[in-house]
Amino acid sequence: MKKSLGKGTHAMPTPVWLVGSYDKDGKANLATVAWGGVCSSDPAAVTVSLRKSRHSYDAIMQRKAFTVNIPSQAFVAAADYAGIASGRNADKFAAAGLTPVKSDLVDAPYVAEFPLVIECRLLQVVEIGVHTQFIGEIVDVKADEEVLDEKGNVDPAKVLPLVYSPTNRAYYGLGAVVGQGFEIGKQFMK
């Protein structure tokens, strides 16, 4: 029998993404976001949600762009730091030992050390309760060659991305492959 947990953010896991933006003074900033995901395949788009009180909120609204930087497990401390420090009072890139790279395609920085980066142009803004959902059209995806498989696709086993559990505030790594998409379920087709 299942036990009711009531309303809450129990969906799991959530991604650990660092959203890159430039503030009004042109300073590169990062915000760790767990409320995010793919929201459209055509146009290719992702969504991230932030509170209006966050330093990155104004930056994204003003610059109409952001990057999604996907850290490997080696950067868990930097990812956590970027979520607990404010870009108003700190240079998160410098403090975490990360290198900002100016995107050639959107008005936002990305993290040189992270294996996977998604560059986004702001497509739509949706107000939802205490959060604002930023929908970004994917302009380009950049990946370190070391995280690509033999077909040129991103291999999660090589990226080693982090996931987050909101209920216990813990970071996790991904486990082993348990089945092939669009294949394993065919056993139920008649």
Automatic annotation (TrEMBL):
Keywords: Flavoprotein. The keyword Flavoprotein applies. The keyword Repressor does not apply. It comes from the Bacteria. One of its GO terms (molecular function) is FMN binding. Its cofactor is FMN. Residues 12-155 form the Flavin reductase like domain. PANTHER family: FLAVOREDOXIN, FLAVOREDOXIN-RELATED-RELATED. Belongs to the flavoredoxin family. This is Flavoredoxin. It comes from Citrifermentans bemidjiense (strain ATCC BAA-1014 / DSM 16622 / JCM 12645 / Bem).
